[in-house]
Amino acid sequence: MAVAISIHHLNHHFGHGQLQKQVLFDIELEINSGEIVIMTGPSGSGKTTLLTLVGGLRSAQSGSLKVLDQELYGAGATELTLARRHNGYIFQAHNLHHSLTALQNVKMGLELHPHLLLPDMEKRAAAMLEHVGLGDRLHSYPDDLSGGQKQRVAIARALVSHPKIVLADEPTAALDKKSGRDVVNLMQTLAKEQGGTILLVTHDNRILDIADRIVYMEDGCLGKNSNALETVG
Ligand SMILES: Nc1ncnc2c1ncn2[C@@H]1O[C@H](COP(=O)(O)OP(=O)(O)OP(=O)(O)O)[C@@H](O)[C@H]1O
């Protein structure tokens, strides 16, 4: 099976000189194409830092970090920007643009794909919103949507470009049990339909069953069994 994400000997530090602090230690992780991996662990253990490195949102400082066969260690700003085009990002609901409608927010997920003409973007964005059950809320603003609906808009925006890699950070944090379950089911279905790979950070034990594998981060180290298949559910 093809490997989508391959991480070896990855360390990460914040700050400089005496204030330098190491937050990731010798991370080893391989994720196959189409796999759904959940990363759990205590607050401050380094999960978001690792997710943002994989997403090309910060630069790798050492070791090797390959995403879709592209080495991101040593990659320049342009290469990182290009690498980000393969990714869909789902964070907590608040990162929708409040002055834009649901449709306009989802359309933004296609703006890095300039080969599409505007009417095609509109059509794809509307179809995606229909797919997540919001066909009747295309022109609603985020403030007029519930937490679960906002998160479904965020999922539609992340997945509208059919990204090969989906990175999600606490996607259910602001949601009640049913809405949380709905959004992860949706992510799982869409990612499987599109053949995408998901790396999802969560503290939410209620959604662990969607994972093909769970890895555990503690004090900047990934659990030794992180490469062993640990099937749940
Ligand atoms: N930009 C930054 N500058 C300095 N230190 C940072 C920065 N971002 C994170 N850290 C530190 O790195 C460590 C890991 O943080 P990170 O956000 O990756 O943890 P986390 O496991 O995602 O936590 P949480 O579950 O609370 O989101 C923490 O000690 C945090 O304070």
TrEMBL record:
GO terms for molecular function: ATP binding; ATP hydrolysis activity. Residues 7-233 form the ABC transporter domain. Coiled coil: none annotated. SMART domains: AAA (SM00382). It comes from the Bacteria. Gene3D superfamilies: P-loop containing nucleotide triphosphate hydrolases. The keyword Cell division does not apply. Keywords: ATP-binding, Nucleotide-binding, Transport. The keyword Metal-binding does not apply. Belongs to the ABC transporter superfamily. This is ABC transporter. It comes from Neosynechococcus sphagnicola sy1.
